[in-house]
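Hi everyone, sorry if this is the wrong subforum. Our group has a chain we'd like a structural model of before ordering constructs, and none of us has done structure prediction before. Sequence below.
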Amino acid sequence: MPVKDPLIETLKVCILQLQAEGTVTDSSPQLVSCCELLELILRKGLQQPVLSLTHRDCWYCFEQLLQHDTCGRLSAVSLAVQQTTACPKLLTAQGRGRFFIRLMLSRRSLGNVVKHLLHTPRVMECYSPEISVLRNEEFVEPFLSLCLVLSEMEFKLNIENCSFLDESWLLPVCETYEAVPCRELGMVLRYLDGRVFVLELLQGSMARVDMFAEPGDIIDEINGISLRNSSNGQAGAILSRMKGQPLSLRLLRWRCEDGGIYRPLVPLLRQLKQEKPSLQFNSARDAPPPNPAVQRKGQSPFVKEGRILYALQLLGKTNIGMYGGKEVLQHTIPAVLQMRQDRKEVLLDVKETHLTCTDKSNKQQLFQHHFPEISCVGRFGQPDFTIFAFCVVDTPSTGQPAGFCCVVMQATSSAECEEIVHRIATGFKNTEWFV
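Answer:
Right subforum, don't worry. Here is the predicted structure as tokens:
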């Protein structure tokens, strides 16, 4: 009976489970296990140099391919090695090796890399013939076959989410926030262990209104500039230099998709909490279940792609002529109510640069308006402060502006109405450079 390597057998099972999913993403449960097994196999039997203080990792072998492979067909691998070397978020050989493996999975080239390793003698000399998989005739063929299977699969991985590969294969939730030009975002930052943590959102600031970050989240990039291993004040200097320009922030969340705390961050979050005891990093899995009665009275519990949408009623709209100042709201809102237009159940999404309204029943988009198109917004004082309206440039099918249109909507509560009006009004301030 042929001898089987336990790592290869486990990898085979893992690949079968990944194949059942179809397209593999960072959310695939078996992805981390698959990558860990690939790393263990490529490390197995890797001999350490006797007269060197540098620890040799599988990344060393990938680098050596460029110098010692003689086949002349290394262009794809060479580009991947160069991209890995140039990535400023990777500080260790372990991190670079992991990034390279993820890159090869995404580009369907892992099998090709293993083939190059096997026919490069100077690289194979680094492995022990007694214990390595790559120099064992019985094990190397099954391993190569599995790598070729992986090269046939579709991996859609966020390659830019790599700042924690030095520490762990487990990656945090990574999201990008697009901010319109503004004077300041309104965040207090804390530099800790070479990372930029959000410590506080200032009252009334754009960051507080849009809630695009939580205390404990990490700013990983600003407009493509990495903040990994940054020095104190570097993020502030970049933001000051880009004042009045659109911003793209790449954020790493302290909270995982399942609501738990991202494990590699636990020691750093604990240190932040010691410095500021008011910080709370409770796992959502430990929180008590929400009260349905409270949910009905409060904010609309609709979520789309991680964003809270407001469930409202669209009461109607009307053209108000060539003047769209706030003074028109006090008589236009009652006028629209008296028209008794057909009410619609809608979902309103107040985004960073614009708002969109969709029909709740059929998910059809009813309108989308950027903040510079909106001239005013306000609440109606009767009967329960749940009705609000905004005036927007009215552009009919002719494409030529025909004055302003007043859109009237009703929220589920006075508090929700106030919040929506405040967020739209804040949009005016944050888009002042667009006007």
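For your construct planning: Confidence is low (pLDDT under 50) at residues 287-301, 431-435. The radius of gyration is 28 Å.
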